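[Amino acid chain]
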Amino acid sequence: MREIKTPWGSISPSVNLFPLYYLIFIYGFIYILPFGESFIGLSWFDWLRSEDGINRGEGPLEWIQFFQYAIACLFSFLIFIKAKKKKSINSLIWIVLSSCTFLIAAEEISWGERIFGFTINSIAELSIQGETNLHNLPFFHNYLLDPALQIICIFLGWIGWRRWPHITSLPGRKFSLFFLLVALYFFYYEISWFSTIEHIRNDQEIFELLLSSGLFMHCWENFRNSYFKFK
């Protein structure tokens, strides 16, 4: 990774520091950016993290996540196609990753409801968000979603590259902050339900962007290495 020079000396991180820069930008600049109420009716910060659902002002972070997951799906599928050993563990993980990112991208736009307006009423009526998606069904959303997300992020950000460093289809160490910071926030968010003070604010969309960005960058790097040769 690139060396960082500071007045106190040089720092040579082994991880991508984009997640830290991103959070500093969001909470150090966007959070206090004025005149949001005047231009769009709510603060810029609240607009960014909005997830209110179809035609109710969903923010740009959800759309960015959709495009990142969709492109990561394409990249991972093309990597699988390019692989010579289709039955190797690397190839199998790439096709699983492609399938998972496709499902997540579809869920982000409620399987096209946010674009085409098509609704499956039997699902939308049960959904917490009132849309055609599965991750907002009450049981899954209230009991399974956040713990599953934490386990996945810990696996991608720590266990995977430490236990199986030779498996290139798993994100490497340099992308670990994209996943570990998400796991840390969701753990803190869940544990605050048991606190003696007020439950912390829901900034999940802010942190979920790191997960989609980490997977996108991991897939892009491997796609580039598979299809383009740089000297």
Summary: The CA atoms of residues 156 and 171 lie 6 Å apart. The radius of gyration is 19 Å. Residues 4-227 form one domain. The longest strand covers residues 4-6.
